[in-house]
Amino acid sequence: MPSLPIHDGPSKSTTKSRSPLILLLVLPVLAVVHIASPFSPLSSANLASSGLSDATSTKIPSCPVQGKPLVPKREFVLPEGYRDESAERLSQAVQIQTVSYDDNGLPTEDPRWAPFFDFQVWLEKTFPVVFESEFATLEKVNTLGLLTTIQGSDKDLKPLLLLSHYDVTPAPPETYDRWTHGAFSGFNDGEYIYGRGASDDKTLLVAQYEALTLLLADPTFIPRRTIILSHGFDEEEVFARQGAGELAKFLEARYGKDSMLLIIDEGTSMDNNAWGSEFAVPSSSEKGYMDVKITVGTAGGHSSVPPAHSGIGIIGDIVHAIEANPYPTSFKTDDPILGFLGCAAEHSPKFPKDWKKLISSGSPKSLQKLSELYGATGIMQHAMVSTTQAIDVIHGGSKVNSLPEEVFLLMNHRIQFSSNVSATQQHLANSIAPIAKKFGLQLSAFAKEAGTEADEVLGGKYVKIETFGLPLEPAPRSSLEGGVWDMFSGSIKYAFPTTDGSPRIVSPFASTGNTDTKVYHPLSSSVFRFTGSLPPKAGARPGNAHTVDETASIESHLSIIKWIHSIAQNADAYEGEE
Known about the structure:
Number of domains: 2
CATH architecture of the largest domain: 3-Layer(aba) Sandwich
Helix content: 25-40%
Structural class: alpha/beta
Largest sheet: 6 strands, mixed
Distance between the termini: 29 Å
Number of helices: 15
Shape: globular
Number of strands: 22
Strand content: 15-25%
Radius of gyration: 25 Å
């Protein structure tokens, strides 16, 4: 889901300094889970050594060198009437209800996938210049995964890989009466396209084909470097691996590991008031992810003879214990948010002076203090510098006069860059252990034997903590130096000059959520999440991804086309280190 920046006002050198907000996405994940011992809480000694407060180095990477804008060979010039035609194409894409669900079956079996086939037909019909090009090949991976390859003349050059997804989240019928225009209407009011998926992620996908159409329609454009467009169909599903997961495996089998020059997906974009400077903030990493199921087993019985605390009461205590023990803020020296603050300290005239001193010091104590100050400026900033925990589902009981024998909750974690899955599990187990002891319940914390066998060992009185789905470690940090970074950041500077026409500062940033890039990391060390949408103007309608009145700005849609048009050319012309 694309990220839309929210601008801050002027900052002062105090702990109340306001800082830029970048709204980020919340998405599914993939990784290897750490399994702890079966029936005992994890020790605080293990917690301390697990990396939860891993800040021993005092060397903070400097802000990336700010090069010059990289001007592509072909100028971005749109013919008369293009704006309206492009808006109409985005509107049509939104009207095709490509909704993915958490319980979708196989593409060849589940009838709910039917609109995705309609979208495929629409895509080929709408962009004939691309699909009828002598350079283009369209392949379908696992039926609905789309892989468009624009073959370059030099097969020794690593391809440019552009990602986007064409599935969207559901728009619940009970919310239809709250939409200004229909949830899948694609309504165009002259400034915005309305409908589910308008901003997440069809504006990017459509813009990619708009840009390629403009390039391939020019007879002088003969691609030297291969360009690949990969489109998943279940990015919005929590546990899905049918789309991007299969596409990534397909590409790795064909091209091998570390075979892509650069991978770009949806993500963060611009901030026009980062303490008085204008920034572009591509995400060079994204936080980790872990869902957890916590189950309380009790004796049950007739509600006329209740115990002092039913299973629901006990899980209520567990919820309180979890929320009373939030994860601390922290910075690791390679944290992308610390990198962003370092760039702001160097380039923003209104950056807080006391924060700058902490960055200059670089000691673990200074970085801890900086994380606390930055986290205190807002809920989004706090989420960027700490592991977050959210209890989202709770269920227990079947009848009003029966005590529940089993109660469970589901909770979500977004794991901070200085932490990992193991440390997050340990923190959670240590928060819950006193509650289990208080009520005389056996504790099973991330046991290898989790499941029916563990239930039999535990008996009827227990607290069981287990991962729900596959967790994900924080993503690798992409390289912020060298030729590929210079080409990437220079292309951003060209496509998005500041309001006075000067070059924009390009800084690392991060995503709180996860994109399809999570399965593509073996293919490149240069993986970025950058949509290319414009920062919203004062009073502008928010994008509202995943909620009522989701919209895409037409002006911003055109800016994304310009971005793809620029990066495709500059990657094609790039002659640096592969």
